Every structure is written in structure tokens, then in C-alpha cells.
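Before a colleague's protein record goes any further, I have to sign it off. What it holds is a sequence and that sequence's fold in C-alpha cell form. Would you go through it and say whether the fold makes sense for this chain? The record follows directly below this note.
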Amino acid sequence: MVRRSAGLVSKKPHRKSRGGCSTCKRKKVKCDEGQPLCGYCSLRKPSCHYPQEPASASPASNATHSNGCFPTGVALHEEAHFDDISMSINPWLIPAVQTASGSLSGLEFELLHQYRTFTWQTLTPRDDEAVVSIHSESFPRLSLSHTHLFYALLSIAASHSNTLAPSKQAAHRALVYRQKTLAEYSGALQNITAENYESVLVTGMLLISLIPLPEDPGTADEETYLVWMYSTLKMSEGLRVLASLRWAAGIEKLSAYPLICRELRTLPPPPIYHSADGCYLYTRVAAVGTTPDHANPPSTYYLPIFLSLYYHHLSLDFFVRVFVFCSFLMSEFLLLVKNREPRALVLIAWWRALAGLAPRGCWVGRSVEKVIEAIGSIIMETADSVTQRAYKDVEHLIRTLKDDGDEAAVKSIFGGTNLCSSPVGQTDTDTFH
């Protein structure tokens, strides 16, 4: 058994190499060239960076290629391979470039390339030109100057790889990059400047996808899912605060603005309904708050979400409104959620159910059902009959979505109202079928 102490690196067989990390070279110790941290650095916790590889090195020798990083059956883009020489790679990534954290290693190059060509598609239902450009070009380029964003992209890609091809090595890699992201991001929050503001805002947005789901959906209890749900809401609150710093001072000029804008269309007035007794049913809603600092109560914003679904069906505008809804939630409402107030919980259940209509995204999947089930247990035990009835409508929506698909689920929301698949002014590219 190899003996290891706090002050000595274990004596393992070592081949002579010029590929050791900068710390080991500076300390004049042998480096085992472990990725992302070598053995020496993992014991002492210093920064572990590898020097730039020679330009003549073969790409195949600098990175470990694995077809297991890509799932089958994804229709958006053809399967990508890092060793495909026909694949376009931006000039600013060739050769291995200098980043704010040092030289880009082979592993980091692979993960960054994976994010910009494939992984980002799992985070959003949108694939319009602006969003594709932001994720594949703007974010990777911006990350080279800001370590918090750089490690966030690597962490998301590493987590995605571990989801597709689980292994202890992949899980450890994802954990290490997540820890690096949080450490760098915490430091950046202490000194937000005009130069790093956008990278901090983007990292805050991406961190929501890095909140780990319960490891085993089959055994995780309801409390675990409620805690996870509340964590995502609190992270969104932080994003709202960050956005408020520049909301009235040119935030629309940021390259990331298409991802945080709150609507793509101006909605027409809500329809007037007739009840069974002949009375008019019309809900008057105050004007939508123009800034996150002065947002209206959460119930105000459900009307625009439902109106978008009613008039424009499953369009990009609807998904944008669902995605940004939690950025409207104020601390007072989040306190009600934390205290498990039934009426607040049923609003969150509706939001989660509507998010489940998206074809993909970090907030969809089995987690939606588990959160709604956990909320239901509380509501059916403690809520009044009106709140319970509202929750049963959520259950009906989820059940219809599973059994009959999204078209039937949308119609069930409006009690069978005849919805147009392509309303006036809506193109085929705006609608998800």
C-alpha cells in the first residue's frame, strides 16, 4: 500500500514528461498529470494549471475522445465528434489559448467544445439564431477572460457528460468544476465592475442548471424535492437582483439580453368570458412592472403566461415567459414558499407544470412530477377546498400531458377551448409541435 502524508506526494511510478502542471514545475516535484487536478495540487489545494501544449501536437493526443458524450435520438443537430476534422472550430480556439485561469488544457478544450456544439441545447427550448450564437460563440469567448464563467461552462459540460455516460471519474470531474465555479463566482460577486458585469450575470443564470437533482428519483423523499425546488427559486432571486443593477441602464445592449428578456410579443387584451349564470368574468390586472425592483405580485404574471399560451400556443414567447417568471418573485413570496403556505405552493405547482410543456430544458423531466407530487401532499392535507381544486387542475394537466401529449394538455387548460395551431402573424418556426 502506498504511504501518503500531508507533506509528501506518494511515490508512484513516473515517466519523464514535459506535460506537468505549472505548480509542480515551480516546486520541482514530479507531476502525475492528473486532470483536472494532479495529485500534488489535490492534496494542497493550490491552483492547478497546465502549460500550453506545443502547436505541433496532434489533437488526438491532447484530448480523450469519447462517443459516449453524446446521446442518440436528438433531432436538433447531427451527432458531433471532437475528432472529426471536418467540424468547424473557431480560430480563437486554435491553438490552445490563454484563458484567465491559464492555458487551455486538452480536457478543458474538449469540454468547452462540447458545451458550444451540443450541451447548451439541453438548457433551453430555444434554438433561434440569436440563442445559438450566444451559446456557441459569445459565452465561450467571454469565458476566456472570466474564470467564473469559464468554469461554469466546463462544469455544465462535465455534468452533462456524466449524465450520458455515468462513471466515478466523470462524476468527480463534474464536482471539481462545480466547486471551482462556486469559488470563483463568490469572489466575483464581491467586486462587480462594468467590465465583468455581463459574465457575472450569465454565470448566475447558468448556476441554476448546476443545482444537483436528487441522485435517485426512485428513493428520494418529498422533502428532498421541496428543498431542491426552493434552492432553484432562491438562485433565481439572486439573478433578479443582478439584473436590477442594470435593468434601466442599457441591459438590452448586453449580448446575453435575448436570454433574459421578458417577452417576444406584445399580447392583446384578455378575452371576456361568460359564466353559466350570464355574468361577465374579467380579471383586471395592473400594468406589468417595468423593472425587477418594482415587480407586481406573482399572480399578476400568470395572466401574461396564460394569454401567450391562449393566443400564440406553444410558441417561443410562451417559453420565454415561463422561463423568466421566477425572476419576478419577490423575497416576501419566497418566504411563503419556504414556510409551505398552500396558496403560494399551488402557484409554484402551476408554474412547474407549465414549464413541463417545454420540449427540453434544465427544468423539465421527472423532477417536475416529483416536485408537484411533493407540493400536492402538503396542499391536500392543509389547504382549503379552493386551493385543493386548483391543485387538482395541475394534476389533470400533468396527466393529460403524459397520456395525450402537449396539444391535448394545452387545450385542457382552457376547458377544451378551440385553439388555433397557427394564430395570425405566427410562423411555423415560432411554434413547437
